[in-house]
Design goal:
73% helix; 465 residues; globular; Growth Hormone, Chain: A; mainly alpha
């Protein structure tokens, strides 16, 4: 290990007892060079977690029409769309729960490195898929790596920065890099659509979706090189060496002292994470129905799709910035959550029920606003979850909420939306899809707002031991 990084681990461990001293002052200590590197690496990891997750929304239609020879809007096409959203995410959530357990058992850094290796290699292999079932399996292994990495990274960051206010700011800002993943994947898809015919052929073809899948390997290379040299969580390491680290247990999440917290957090997170699966990730299939395809080439239509998606993901940055500005100043976590939930209940129905009839420009503006609100909600969980569980259960508890609630349960919204689109009223397949996305979004947001009144408040500014 590099000397500076090893020093950081011991220094951070020593800071834990100084939090009460720092709490009395408003000025936070400046980050060291090593801490800046940690934040940069974590931010890059978050960015490419979302990069891989959002890729499905962009490539699913061209994959099904070229690899599966299915016609857009048919019931079989809608079924496969639902499967590509649902099955990989459920697989990722299920194995992600195991990853949270392994994070508590073997350490945060080790699990991070292996999870990045899994999703990088899977992304590469997926670009060479020759059938829909094979691609579906490789998307499953890709999302498994993504889900495990996300849980380990949040626990790692929270424990490296034990000072409460600094931890809030660091988690808020690094998770803001999630939004960069959306911008990057929309840019990558645009480049693949525009310049794919100039690139070396993959399986004797120049299909843009193959190049987009292959690009998922790129971030794994620097992350796998750098992350092994970063420090392990000092809190976890000290307890492990002293033999005082309890063995993690999923059953312990449901013992009386944690049962209510686990159930409420999991259900609320399921509702908030259902928003992209049931609504926002379907915009790339709504957009082609809002443009004049008669006078536009297929390439221009896909360029419009990537352009709207780019604006949508610009809203991700705005939402994360707003959250980062609010997190240190809003007194209670419940109030912070409702700041985003309340307006979302108004914006989402307006976006999906009314704006599609007013053309692409109006719809694009509405998508930007909806994405701002959703990303405020998404950022909330990364700051909130580490404050609820003790060290030996932090990864396991986070993983249960994020993977079982935020992925396994939440992704069912994708199936609900795709099946509702078969029966919803509307003049075209795109309008019917927009209406079904609006109905799903309204339902899950209303449930989340109702449940939020019972969410537990953190009992202390310190992380539970």
């Amino acid at each position: 290990m590099k000397p500076g990084l090893m020093t950081l681990g011991s220094e951070t461990g020593a800071v834990g007892g100084a939090d009460s001293i720092a709490a009395g002052t408003r000025r936070l200590p400046p980050l060291t060079a090593a801490q800046w590197l940690i934040c940069a690496v974590a931010g890059l990891g978050f960015a490419f977690d979302l990069y891989e997750t959002l890729m499905t929304a962009l490539i699913v239609e061209p994959v099904l029409t070229t690899l599966g020879h299915l016609k857009a809007g048919t019931s079989e096409f809608n079924l496969w769309v639902g499967l590509f959203f649902f099955v990989p995410t459920v697989a990722g959530g299920t194995f992600g729960l195991c990853g949270g357990y392994l994070t508590d058992l073997f350490g945060r850094r080790r699990v991070l490195v292996w999870s990045i290796l899994v999703y990088g290699l899977s992304a590469c292999a997926a670009s060479f898929a020759t059938s829909l079932p094979a691609l579906l399996v490789l998307r499953c292994t890709t999302l498994i790596g993504v889900c495990v990495e996300a849980v380990a990274a949040i626990a790692w960051l929270a424990e490296l920065f034990p000072m409460a206010k600094q931890r809030e700011v660091i988690l808020g800002c690094t998770q803001g890099c999630y939004a960069l993943g959306g911008l990057m994947v929309s840019g990558a898809y645009y480049l693949a659509v525009t310049y794919g015919d100039r690139l070396p052929a993959i399986l004797r073809s120049h299909e843009a979706w193959r190049y987009t899948l292959l690009s998922g390997l790129i971030p794994a290379i620097p992350l796998m090189i750098i992350r092994p040299f970063l420090p392990e969580s000092p809190i976890w390491r000290v307890k492990k060496r002293a033999g005082t680290l309890k063995r993690p247990s999923i059953a312990e999440l449901f013992q009386p002292r944690l049962r209510k917290t686990t159930l409420l957090v999991t259900l609320t997170m399921a509702c908030t994470l259902a928003v992209p699966y049931g609504a926002l990730q379907h915009t790339p299939r709504i957009v082609p129905g809002l443009v004049d395809k008669v006078h536009l080439s297929p390439q221009k239509v896909q360029q419009d799709v990537s352009a709207v998606f780019f604006v949508q993901e610009s809203g991700s940055i705005a939402g994360r910035v707003v959250f980062a500005l609010l997190v240190a100043y809003v007194a209670t976590r419940r109030r912070l959550l409702r700041i985003f939930l309340g307006p979302a209940l108004l914006v989402f129905p307006f976006l999906f029920f009314l704006l599609p009839a007013h053309g692409l420009v109006a719809f694009t503006f509405g998508v930007f606003c909806a994405q701002v609100l959703f990303n405020g909600l998404h950022s909330f969980w990364g700051n909130y979850l580490p404050t609820l569980y003790p060290t030996h259960l932090r990864g396991t508890g986070e993983s249960f909420a994020m993977n079982i609630g935020g992925r396994v349960i939440a992704v069912s919204a994708a199936l609900l939306t795709t099946q509702l689109s078969n029966v919803m009223p509307g003049a075209s397949a795109a309008i019917r899809l927009a209406h079904s996305a609006g109905a799903t979004g309204l339902l899950v947001l209303a449930i989340a707002l109702l449940i939020s009144r019972w969410l537990p408040e953190p009992q202390s500014s310190q992380l539970p031991e």
